[in-house]
Amino acid sequence: MPLGPALLALGAPDFPVAPGRSFEALAPRVELEPCVLPPVCDVAARVVDASGLPVAGARVRCSASPRAEQGELATDADGRALLRDLPPGPGRVSAEHTTLGRGNTATRFPVGEQLEVEIVLHARRP
User: Fold this and answer.
1) Please, which pLDDT band fits residue 93 given cuts at 50, 70 and 90?
2) Domain that holds residue 10
3) Residue 95: which pLDDT band, with cuts at 50, 70 and 90?
């Protein structure tokens, strides 16, 4: 690390996990105050088809902004997927299946809680 002013940041530049902290690098070893990370949100998604039956193998994605996808998982046999450690705030949960179509919902990821969402897939139009 070069000596001089520096910034410690966690997360993507356009979507930080915690506020950046400035410090002066005076020697090869720098000690900082403890950094407390903000609470995060888990999203428990359930994906169903138009008749309400669970969909296994759907890809579930969560994003906090159009440019910042936060995670992707496949649903289990019960149509469920759990995405962990998402930053709180506005976002979108979407699901897609190769033959059953796609669905999504805009939501707000709550601070320090688990959000439960159900996504209904709609078949693509030919």
Assistant:
1) very high
2) 1-37
3) very high
Same domain, 2 and 53: no
Residues 22 and 74 in one domain: no
Neighbours of 60 (CB within 10 A): 25
Reading the block at residue 11, the tokens are 């997360």
Q: What is the amino acid identity at position 121?
A: L
Cβ atoms of 121 and 100 within 8 Å: the answer is yes
- Assign residue 74 the CATH number of its domain: 2.60.40.1120
Among the residue ranges 11-15, 43-47, 108-112, the one predicted with the least confidence is 11-15
**Buried b / exposed e across 68-85, counting CB within 10 Å, b at 16+?**
eebeebebeeebbbebee
Is 125 within 8 Å of 102 (Cβ atoms)?
no
Per the CB < 8 A criterion, the answer to whether 96 and 102 are in contact is yes
Query: What's residue 33's pLDDT?
Result: 72
Residues 31 and 75 in one domain: no
pTM of the complete model: 0.68
